[in-house]
Amino acid sequence: MSDISLELRRVVAERAGYRCEYCHLPQSVVLHKHEPDHIVPVQHGGKTEAANLALACIRCNRFKGPNVGSFDPQTGELVRFFNPRTDGWEGHFQFDLSGEIIPLTPEGRVTVLIFRLNDDDRVVERRLLYDVGLFS
Fold first, then answer.
1. How far from chain centre, in Å, is Cα 52?
2. CB 27 within 8 A of CB 33
3. Which one, of 85, 112, 75, 83, lies nearest residue 96 by Cα?
4. Which residues are registered as beta bridge partners of 70?
5. Could you tell me which of 63, 33, 27 has the C-alpha nearest to residue 135?
6. Are 19 and 27 in contact (CB under 8 A)?
7. Which of 39, 57, 76, 97 is deepest in the core (most CB within 10 A)?
8. Is residue 32 within 8 Å of 59, Cβ to Cβ?
9. From CA 101, how far away is CA 71, in angstroms rounded?
């Protein structure tokens, strides 16, 4: 694992508005700080630079692991994950007031699937946070 400077960590966190760039969980409501995630992992040639880093909650980062994509559950095609540096979140996902994150594209579908964005506990957590004004 490569070292990420405190300054680069700050840049990544500020750019993300201190929320996970995948599931949108605010850092202010978790016990473990969000982490800079290599969008393209180092083992796949990714660089430790702002253009290849996204702020990720511990769950999104762990579920993603060193993967760069997966097979779309609808088409069976190999598809890359959502990339916070090049893709707009709203173009790939929709937040449902039930707490679910609805995928709108193949990239959204594989990201929701592999990152387990709609596991029951995560959906309940988002719904409760939304209900008290801490999730948008």
1. 13
2. yes
3. 112
4. 79
5. 27
6. yes
7. 57
8. no
9. 19
Give whole-number Cα distances, 10 to 23, 29, 53, 87, 97, in Å.
19, 18, 12, 21, 31
Mean pLDDT value across the chain = 95
Question: Contact 91/50 with Cβ under 8 angstroms?
Answer: no
Which of the four pLDDT bands, split at 50, 70 and 90, describes residue 1?
Answer: very low
Q: 111-117: long-range contacts at Cβ-Cβ below 8 A with a sequence spacing of 24 or more?
A: 111/22, 111/81, 111/82, 113/70, 113/73, 114/63, 114/64, 114/67, 114/70, 114/81, 115/22, 115/23, 115/59, 115/60, 115/63, 115/64, 115/81, 116/59, 116/63, 117/22, 117/23, 117/60
Q: What is the signed CA dihedral for 122, 123, 128, 131, rounded to 10 degrees?
A: 140
Q: What residues does 53 pair with on adjacent strands?
A: 38
How many CA atoms within 13 Å lie on the side-chain side of 27? 18
Cβ-based neighbours of 72, under 8 Å, separated by 6 or more = 78, 79, 106, 109, 110
**The pTM of the whole model exceeds 0.85:** yes
Exposure of 92 by Cβ count < 10 A (0-12 exposed, 13-18 middle, 19+ buried)? Answer: buried
